[in-house]
């Protein structure tokens, strides 16, 4: 399959647009710089093609962390390689650990060797640019900003952010979902789902103990909010004078029709996010084992069209649950979860 990587960031454009309009230059200037940088990266991603890694799959990751030195040249100076001892820079060590946590979830839960399934080395650059308010997967590597300290902290802090961005790579190598409209929202949602599962796996949490937040710990202390998104309760992650109120819908009743953000990919992802949360908590136990397996089978099964709608994805999750677990509790829970958020499954 010819995968065409898209430029995907953890902080959506609608948040940065609002911050860029803030009166306080300590808030607006970093946001404007981030938007400008992201626009340039996005244009380059559209022209990029993938290069086969030529790696031999193994049961250990091949991680390399670089320090961009607050500049924009990538990857920067190598500061930690696979198997190296921890360094004094906590940001480097968090990036290294997050790459490993992502590798572990995919290998141990689903038998997948790295994000491409063929042992792709996992590279990351930290300390990117000045007060850069984002993290992204550029089709080949991870890149982390340090945040502006006013709204966002270091982007290596939440392991689910690392897992989210690397999962865009998994999607790139599998279903390769188009990054617009409902297929784009599914692309974002799949990254949130597995980002959350990576955190839960690393913490050995059951579904009822997980916080189901994406980016917890990323918001600065003065911000009124707990994370970037909530899968448990979309629309409640933050409500802040500067940041605004979390606009994510939880059901199709509040589906957002917009031309912004590639058709609202970061907004409407709340709907399939909530469906997954409902499924995982209904089944109980460790969410990566049954709910996550259904989502993984759907993503990698070869039947998901690049322009998939929510209904397409929902229908295939029902089929995946039946194929994996039979016509029982898992399939029934999948149908109920999608029904609750207003997405038809055809079942």
Describe the 3D structure.
Helix 3 (90-110) crosses helix 4 and helix 4 crosses helix 5 (181-203). Residues 45-54 have low confidence and may be disordered. With 347 residues, the protein is α+β, with helices and mostly antiparallel strands. The protein starts with 7 loop residues before the first strand and ends in a 7-residue tail after the last helix. The chain has 10 helices and 10 strands. It is 43% helix and 9% strand. The longest helix has 23 residues, at 181-203. The strands form 3 sheets. Strands 1-5-6-4-2-3 form a 6-stranded mixed sheet, with helices on one face. It has a two-stranded antiparallel ribbon with strand order 7-8. Strands 9-10 form a two-stranded antiparallel ribbon. The radius of gyration is 19 Å and the shape is globular. The protein has helices spanning 13-20, 25-46, 90-110, 159-173, 181-203, 261-268, 270-283, 291-300, 310-325, 329-340, and strands at 8-9, 63-67, 77-81, 122-126, 135-137, 142-144, 213-214, 229-230, 239-240, 244-245. A hairpin with a 3-residue loop joins strand 9 and strand 10 (244-245).
Keywords:
alpha+beta, about 350 residues, single chain, two-stranded antiparallel sheet, about 45% helix, globular, about 10% strand, six-stranded mixed β-sheet
Helix content: 40-55%
Main pleated-sheet profile: 6 strands, mixed
Q: What's the alpha carbon Rg, rounded to whole Å?
A: 19 Å
Please count the beta strands (DSSP E, at least 2 residues each). 10
Question: Low-confidence parts lasting 5 or more residues at pLDDT below 50?
Answer: 45-54
Question: Termini, distance in Å?
Answer: 30 Å
How do the SSEs run, as a string of H and E? EHHEEHEEEHHEEEEHHHHH
């Amino acid at each position: 399959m010819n995968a065409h990587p898209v430029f995907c960031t953890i902080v959506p454009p609608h948040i940065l647009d609002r911050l860029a309009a803030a009166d306080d230059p300590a808030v607006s200037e970093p946001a404007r710089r981030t938007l400008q940088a992201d626009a340039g990266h996005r244009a380059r991603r559209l022209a990029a093609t993938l290069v086969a890694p030529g790696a031999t799959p193994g049961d250990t990751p091949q991680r390399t962390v670089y320090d961009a030195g607050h500049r924009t040249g990538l990857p920067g100076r190598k500061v930690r390689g696979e198997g190296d001892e921890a360094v004094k820079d906590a940001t480097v060590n968090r990036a290294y650990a997050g790459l490993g946590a992502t590798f572990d979830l995919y290998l141990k839960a689903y038998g997948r060797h790295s994000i491409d399934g063929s042992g792709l080395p996992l590279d990351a650059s930290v300390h990117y640019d000045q007060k850069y308010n984002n993290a992204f997967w550029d089709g080949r590597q991870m890149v982390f900003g340090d945040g502006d300290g006013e709204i966002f902290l270091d982007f290596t802090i939440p392991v689910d952010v690392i897992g989210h961005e690397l999962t865009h790579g998994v999607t790139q190598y599998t279903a390769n979902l188009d990054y617009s409209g409902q297929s784009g929202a599914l692309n974002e949602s799949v990254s949130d789902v597995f980002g959350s599962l990576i955190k839960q796996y690393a913490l050995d949490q059951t579904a009822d103990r997980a916080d189901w937040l994406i980016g917890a710990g990323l918001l600065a202390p003065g911000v009124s909010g707990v994370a970037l998104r909530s899968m448990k309760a979309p629309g409640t992650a933050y409500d802040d004078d500067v940041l605004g109120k979390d606009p994510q819908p939880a059901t199709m009743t509040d589906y957002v029709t917009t031309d912004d953000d590639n058709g609202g990919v970061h907004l409407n992802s709340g709907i399939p996010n909530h469906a997954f949360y409902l499924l995982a908590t209904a089944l109980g136990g460790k969410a990566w084992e049954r709910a996550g397996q259904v989502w993984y089978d759907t993503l990698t099964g070869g039947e998901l069209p690049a322009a998939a709608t929510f209904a397409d994805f929902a229908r295939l999750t029902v089929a995946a649950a039946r194929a994996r677990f039979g016509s029982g509790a898992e399939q029934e829970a999948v149908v109920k979860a999608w029904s609750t958020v207003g997405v038809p499954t055809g079942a």
